[in-house]
Design brief:
- It comes from Nitratireductor kimnyeongensis.
- It holds the Pfam family DUF498.
- InterPro entries: MTH938-like_sf, NDUFAF3/AAMDC.
- A hairpin with a 2-residue loop joins strand 2 and strand 3.
- By secondary structure, the chain is of the alpha+beta class.
- The strands form two sheets. A six-stranded mixed beta sheet has the order 1-6-5-9-7-8, sandwiched between helices. The protein has a three-stranded antiparallel beta sheet with strand order 2-3-4.
- The chain has a single domain, classed as MTH938-like (Hypothetical Protein Mth938, Chain: A), CATH 3.40.1230.10.
- It contains three helices and nine strands.
Length: 129
């Protein structure tokens, strides 16, 4: 067996409210994560995105792969609201998902409320300082 540290993709296997955000990350389930996150029915995953304007198709693959598992997607675009491009919004609608974009703080608060109501919600949250 080779020694050393095994680096795995950040993943919390469950749904959990977001306890705090800021300083470049999030706190949830008595843990913290530095960077952006995807909150999906399959769990909370680290998301290698630092700005909404730099999103690429590959950054959204997990969202589309799991789109049948949620009805609402909240997108936290960072410090300020940045509208989602029309074509991308259309693709989510075709997948049966309603999308709401808002600043990350508002997205976190809305996600927590919908999660508490046991709604089928997902969130893509870009970390803020």
């Amino acid at each position: 067996m080779a020694g050393g540290i095994e680096i795995r993709a950040a993943h919390f296997p469950g749904r959990a409210p977001i306890d705090a955000y800021g300083n470049g990350g999030f706190r949830f389930a008595d843990m913290s994560h530095r960077g952006s996150i995807l909150c999906l029915p399959s769990g909370i995953h680290g998301w290698e995105v630092s700005g909404f304007g730099e999103l690429e198709e590959a950054d959204l693959a997990r969202l589309f792969d799991e789109a049948s598992e949620f009805d609402i997607l909240l997108v936290g675009t960072g410090e300020q609201l940045i509208p989602m491009p029309v074509e991308l919004r259309k693709r989510f609608r075709e997948a049966g998902v309603a999308v709401e974009t808002m600043a990350t703080g508002a997205a976190v608060r809305t996600y927590n409320v919908l999660l508490a109501e046991d709604r089928t919600v997902a969130a893509a949250l870009i970390a803020v300082d």
